[in-house]
Hints:
With 456 residues, this protein is α/β, with parallel strands linked by helices. The chain folds into 4 domains: 121 residues, Response regulator (Rossmann fold, 3-Layer(aba) Sandwich); 170 residues, Rossmann fold (3-Layer(aba) Sandwich), CATH 3.40.50.300; 85 residues, Helicase, Ruva Protein, domain 3; 44 residues. It contains 20 helices and 16 strands. The chain has a 5-stranded parallel β-sheet, sandwiched between helices. A 5-stranded parallel β-sheet has the order 7-10-13-6-14. A two-stranded antiparallel sheet has the order 8-9. Helix 4 links the parallel strand 4 and strand 5. The longest helix is centred in the N-terminal third of the chain and has 33 residues. It is elongated.
Amino acid sequence: xxRILIIDDEPAIQDVxxxxxxxxGYEVFIAGDGLEGLRLLKTEPVDVVFLDVWLPGKxxxxxxxxxxxxxxxxxxxxxxxxxxxxTAVRAIKLGAYDYLEKPLDLGRVVTIxxxxxxLEALRRENAALRQGQFLEDDMIGDTEGMRRIRExxxxxxxxxxxxxxxxxxxxxxxxxxxxxHNRSRRSTRPFVEVNCAAIPDNLIESELFGHxxxxxxxxxxxxxxxxxxxxxxxxxxxxxxxMTLEAQAKVLRAVQEMTFERVGGEDQIHVDxxxxxxxxxxIRREVEEGRFREDLYFRLNVIPLSxxxxxxxxxxxxxxxDYFHKSLVxxxxxxxPPGFSAEAMxxxxxxxxxxxxxxxxxxxxxxxxLVDETVVTEETARYYLGxxxxxxxxxxxDREYDTMKLGEARDxxxxxxxxxxxxxxxxxxxxxxxxxxxxxxxxxxxxxxYSVEIRK
Length: 456
């Protein structure tokens, strides 16, 4: 159902135009002047505006300029009882969809509204398709975990089943949620995200369900909540486990019944919303320890989906690095992203990536912008990984000895030390023996024992 805003100071026009549009199935909002109309646009998503030229205070042409500046996709139909060619031409140049003279031809009103609303719907659909293509391309990787995600999304996206996405910060949970939405029958409708961890406890109810004017200090106008904005589309509750138990109780009712009231309101609001939730916490433990409602957990976790951390999909690193490189230099024909040496790639593969995909993307961006090398060396890669990277070689070496017996570990360490000192001293036996503090004969014995290659 398209939403229409009428900005006109004549009650007769408001009544007649409003009744016609409601009879055609549109949701109609009324504003008596331009400033009220602009304030309403800040809280109510609108598809088409009927705007009178002659308004008290801020004139219609000025209001048109403000609308096209802040809401360029909203179609505006100018109406006036004092039409001039100059005014009509100026309005069209400023982006008005059409121009109607009073008294209004009601048949033409219906036709123009239908065409303008259809144009806006097509614009949204095209944007959703473009976004869907871009986001699907962003699901990079061919490891078992990524193949499993695509399989679950392919099986469940077309349904309206609620899904819960589990995974560490930075693994791409929002990306998966958008992928589900873009493959669903709701793909041309809104995708609305709520970061439950970022909203103060005292505002979460207003954020989700909206509020009426005067409901609390600072509520200067009625405001729609995320559930209402997402009507006919998808609501993504990110970091859902960070909600208070009080907020969880109210979300439970809305999820069960798809019905709620705005804060300070009494009217029952019915919506049709698909719920996708996500959390980086161990949700089962949160339930067991009483921090998350079990009944809400079972409502949201109809289809669970787990996104693996980057350290569990190391084979995807080369593909991801290449993708981020290319996306950063896209459009710049002269730019050529640096490659990585074999040693640098080994370092990146061993690195645990605690920030997951988000950290990898930031690292690649730093290297692409700041490094002049054609091939990034191990030392450079370690430098741009920071302190964690500088500790990595020591940690990796320690882990290598974990499963060895003492004699095996000692022999491996001794062999590597001999090889490194020989190379540092140009494979000169006397110098190497002196550096190691042994006799040349002892060094010869170790070279033979460990089958160390002497290069001249």
